[in-house]
């Protein structure tokens, strides 16, 4: 069994779509439990993140890995629903590219890596206005709100969105993480965000920390 799972992990690390899909199908045929298959895929995604951090992989490789992960998950999702083996997610995240900006590669990568790490992700898409973020917080009650922008002209909108969340009295209910090419740690602090995700891999680590902080906050109040 462990051989099949190692093959799944290694094939996604090698960015081999066919081998990953065949591995997942073989695992299902051999009665490997869904959770173990998902864990093998997630482990592969984690290794890819580390390779990216080390400069061995590039954004294009992350995009390919994200697509392979989605393909594999599309095979597993019906089985997950069937078996009701949905483990409790680490946390719920609402994510979107801010209004005026239609770039979604970075956002999609972050969403995929978060899903691989065990988060429930609600993706609002691109060009998302403040009121849509506010509505999503009311509707889904997320732990974290993630905002992305690729343009210097649209990154300023992040501040407006945070202000809109504050006006609705929802700011203390969510942690806010921002990211995208022009964003910096300094900018994140200036606009009142809780965190800055430098890349998809870092964003996952930060979101895990934010969930831990939120849990502690709730324990103390």
Q: Can you summarize the main beta sheet?
A: 5 strands, parallel
Strand order of the largest sheet: 2-1-3-4-5
Mean pLDDT: 91
Give the end-to-end Cα distance, rounded to a whole number of Å.
46 Å
H/E element string? Answer: HHHHEHEHEHHEHEH
β-strand number? 5
Summed up, the domain count is 2
Instruction: Bin the strand percentage.
Output: 5-15%
CATH class group of the largest domain? Alpha Beta
* CATH architecture assignment of the largest domain: 3-Layer(aba) Sandwich
Poorly predicted residue ranges? none
CATH superfamily of the largest domain: Cobalamin-binding domain
Number of helices: 10
Based on secondary structure, the structural category is alpha/beta
CATH topology description of the largest domain: Rossmann fold
Approximate helicity band: 55-70%
Question: Rounded to an integer, what's the Rg over CA atoms?
Answer: 18 Å
**Basic shape:** globular
Which features does this protein show?
5-stranded parallel β-sheet, Rossmann fold, alpha/beta, single chain, Methyltransferase, Methionine Synthase (B12-binding Domains), Chain A, domain 1, 221 residues
What does this structure look like?
The structure is a single chain. This protein has helices at 2-13, 17-29, 34-53, 59-83, 105-116, 130-140, 152-155, 157-167, 185-190, 200-220, and strands at 92-97, 120-123, 144-148, 175-179, 195-197. The protein folds into two domains: 2-83, Methionine synthase domain (Methyltransferase, Methionine Synthase (B12-binding Domains), Chain A, domain 1, Orthogonal Bundle); 92-220, Cobalamin-binding domain (Rossmann fold), CATH 3.40.50. The mean pLDDT is 91. Strands 2-1-3-4-5 form a five-stranded parallel β-sheet, with helices on both faces. The protein is built from ten helices and five strands.
């Amino acid at each position: 069994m462990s051989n099949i799972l190692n093959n799944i992990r290694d094939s996604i690390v090698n960015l081999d779509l066919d081998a990953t899909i065949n591995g997942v199908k073989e695992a299902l045929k051999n009665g490997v439990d869904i959770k173990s298959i998902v864990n093998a895929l997630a482990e592969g995604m984690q290794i890819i993140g580390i390779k990216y951090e080390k400069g061995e992989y590039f954004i294009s490789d992350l995009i390919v890995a994200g697509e392979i992960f989605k393909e594999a998950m599309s095979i597993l999702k019906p089985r997950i629903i069937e078996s009701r083996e949905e483990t409790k997610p680490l946390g719920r995240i609402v994510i979107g590219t801010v209004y005026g900006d239609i770039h979604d590669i970075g956002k999609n990568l972050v969403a995929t890596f978060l899903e691989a790490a065990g988060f429930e992700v609600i993706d609002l898409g691109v060009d998302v206005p403040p009121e849509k973020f506010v509505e999503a917080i009311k509707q889904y009650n997320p732990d974290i709100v993630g905002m992305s922008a690729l343009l210097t002209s649209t990154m300023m909108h992040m501040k407006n969105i945070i202000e809109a969340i504050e006006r609705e009295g929802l700011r203390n209910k969510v942690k806010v993480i921002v990211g995208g090419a022009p964003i910096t740690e300094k900018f994140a602090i200036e606009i009142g965000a809780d965190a800055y995700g430098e890349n998809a891999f870092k964003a996952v680590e930060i979101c895990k920390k934010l969930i831990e902080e939120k849990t502690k906050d709730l324990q103390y109040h």
